[in-house]
Amino acid sequence: MPSVRRALMIMTLMACSGATAHAATGFSDDFEHGGQLHITGDGWRAETWEEVPGSDRLRVTHASRAGDYGVRFSLFRNDEYVETSNRTELKKDTRPGDTFGMGNNGDERYYRWNIFIPNDYQVDTHPDAFEIVGQLHRSPDGGQAWKSPPIDLAIKGDQWHININNDGAGYDADLGTIQKGVWTEFVLHTIWSPGSDGQTTLYRNGAEVFSQQGPNTYGSHYSDNDFFLKVGVYKPYWRDTDTPYTVKSSTWQRTFVYDDVLVGDAGESPQSMRSEQPARPIEIHRYGTHEHGADARVVGNGSDRHRYNTGGSTRLESRGSDWSGAQYATYLRFDLSDSALPIVADATLQLVLELDQNYPLDVYAVPDAFTGREDGYGLPEFGETEWTEGNGSWSLATGTEINGDRAPGFDETTGLPDTAVLEFIGTIATTGGLRDDSMVELTSTALIDAVAADTNDQITLVIVARDTSGSGTWIHSKESDTDLAPSLEIITQAPELPSDFNLNGAVDVDDVDILLANLGHPGFDLTNDRRSDLADFDAIVTGDAFLGSLLGDINGDLAIDLLDLSILAANFDTNATGTLPYTLGNLNADHAIDLLDLSILAANFGRTAVPEPAATALLAALPTLLRRRRSHA
User: According to the lineage, what is the superkingdom (predicted)?
Assistant: First the structure.
């Protein structure tokens, strides 16, 4: 991953008291509530498996279509049922005292939501499989049985579908192939009616893709209650074989991101319902799953007091220290080299646990400096098939072998994780209530930062059970079962301002340093040629849309003067193995500050960069525009 930290603390965020109104009436939520879901009052209701400890199947994320936040929904096939089936959803209904209802028979309504489908979304190949990713439903009249949603948006195979259910035969329309790796905006326009005067029109990214006159809801037993909107994922055929149902699915896991939800009345139009901000690119990658087995490998599970191997076991072990004198540590290494976007917005470790033990699992990151082999010790590199059991291990404190009984990152005396070396990521608080083969998830700011800070496109995690009984917890590593292997889900995104790589709301010389540190990475391409090179370095310094200055303006004040010369002079004759920062005086993007840099500064000495009038107006208006966007919530 590129070495850009997700600057969570740099941005000043305004926590909002509730969901927002659109125009005179309506409901909207862009999820800009300071990192919290608006669940109470006039906001959402959550329908998700909350018993999964710390898993957060439904949570706010820094991956967003626009602004600072979106919502990530995840679902695993072995999750406990919610309302008799597998679902993770947000529900918005009409509450007592609401001045704006979600719609009833005879009402005209517009409903908008934006959904992001991951780049590596696995199509469910079972002929009966589908998943609902948006629906308009309503509760039946008292004592009556529930029916299918009057209108739902679904994915069947790799196709979008809209389904309309009424007292008759209903309707199922194929809307074309889904698009992975991009935001898709849907606007649904309805005039609700169980009769011929009903109207249903669906727009995708502003274009009409479906329109039908006729009944779009039930007439009998469904007239007393308003409709409600649900967004998220509902997978009705993920059923266990020990129920009356059989599994009708070829997939195990789903992740979607949603943003920018809006409900309007007859005063709106298809155009007024469009999202105001342009969509910001994001990418979702999962490493280590069955489909991506080459992207990760299990480094080992410890035995004989931290000795470890990569034998043929289909399970990993993390155990306490009092079981026959052994403590087991599981090492996971992930290859993160394929992301093309520079900002790490979200990171989630996903583990499938085989046993329902009560022992928390502590997760640590192993620093890059300690993950390579040195004199035969340390963790194996990608491509090495196994350790030799007698090869020993590497003491991180001394860099020498300690009798073959010490795993990297553990204290020589206590046998416990050495927190001076390993970076604590978080704890997975397992409970006895978990089902067999339950998936648990862990995310934290520390995990996001550890992924963002890696320098070799790899990250190694070590997992240790915090117990003294020695019973421990099994972690799946089966290659034969899709998605049961440990995985790491990473969401990356582009900055809102091109080249604002440190997310401080402006393009400055610190962004130039970040680009120089990541030359060659496509996520830092400013010239649309799918790579970052000297052309991008020149663009970010001199381009009117970026810094808009001249080479030699080391301090970014749009003038090349004695202040810049003094910085270069203070660092003259500095040499490095990597590219030196621009802010030290490296003006030609090489590994030294020398006469070449001095000659560049001298050529521009005394000059002042004056932005073009259009750029000046844009820079002057930028603070107001940013305040307006963030106060929208």
Answer: Bacteria
